[in-house]
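thread: overnight batch results

M.L. [08:02]
morning all. the overnight job finished for the chain we discussed friday. pasting input first so we're all looking at the same thing
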Amino acid sequence: MTLAAIEHSLTDKQKEVVNYDGDELLIKGIAGSGKTTVLLNKAKKMIKKDSSIRIGLFTYNKTLSQYAKIIAEQIGPRNLFVYTFHGWAAGALRDVTKKRKLFVTNTKDQKDFLKNAVEIVRQDSTHRFVTEEKFREFLAEEISWVKGKGIKNLTEYQDVSRTGRGSSVRVTKPDRKIMYRIFEEYERVKRNSGKIDYDDFALTLLENKEKIRDDYKFDQVMIDEGQDLQQVQLMLLRFIAKKGFAVAADKGQKIYKTSFTWKEIGINILGGRTKILQNSFRSTKQIIQMAYSLQLNDSIIKDEEYVMPILPEYTGPVPDVYQCSTREKQDTAIVSTIKMLLQKNPDKTIGVLSREWKSVNRFYYALQAESIPHEYIKKDQGNAHTAGVKLTTFHSAKGLEFDYVIILDLVDDTGDQELQDEEYKEIERRLLYVSITRAKTYLQLYYYNQPSSLLKEIDSQFYNKNVM
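M.L. [08:03]
and the structure it wrote out:
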């Protein structure tokens, strides 16, 4: 990926974003509307105007960070610094706490600490949160949410609005009291272990914000995919922005149960401080039609921050949906398609996406067996911008794009009771929406046995159905 890739002629709407000189800016844009591109162009313009400026660009994941770093090197290696939130926060936290190494919990640690916390509370409580195993995942999510909101005591927790938190588990005032006890015990057990959660990074830095040195601050802070950051993370990033703060966000791609208002973050988005990008410059009209058909089932379309897409004029093939009798037949069909695409267009990118890494890993070996070159796109691994076959998950594909996208294993997992929960389903729907909108010109979706209920939500007039 080169600098030329972001220097194509901008639309009037995109130029409006790049040329905006106010100190606070919210960019609301649909998938493929050029949010990352306008942020990079904005940074380029600022560096040209002031060669001593320091700009921090914060991206959603390491994969997107890699792409932005390549461009940053060409724009201004001494001016534009690209991070993920946790990548930057780890350095700042080590500096503030004077610790050379941070001992961060992993998933097993968190499960063990929560189990211990629940057992302690269960000694004098028969509340369903501590007696029923099925609430364990909810408790873990709630602890993360409490930290993400920056809640400091029981009173704050009992008073806080749960808008955006979901409704799969009804939480009454007595429930909150027990929940906060579990939270406090979890924190005590974790503290005794000498470890911290990733969710503690922003909280600890906010509590010690006066100790954050200028080396970890920036004249301008820019955030890509801001809708999935936690409230405290955004508040911290606003604090380290000495002059300007710009955040690009799309509620339609919100895939985590974070909740905040821009007012809570401490930024003013009223008047001309909000710019809207409704046009997709990535995907064809046919792909956007299919994606929008799915999105119409999402409650997000009633949100005041939702941006309705304008259909592109650029057209291409209608997406294909393939029904296969077995998983083996599905994998064989996809391998054949990939061979054909590579033969016809060896210079194109082919993204093979699935919800879970286990599906991606299985298909990795299917490609190996056929000696088809391929690579993972995972954290620091792989390059999504070079030609060839790229394997990744819905989550890791966020912010990326491929000429062709193949989505596999879109099956109905009846064993997963969470799918009955609308809140869970909304996240899954957005993940599929994100994955569909990674495709630039051609899209295929595959399932075997029974299709995912999400696939049934897409209007059949927007795809070709194929039975294999």
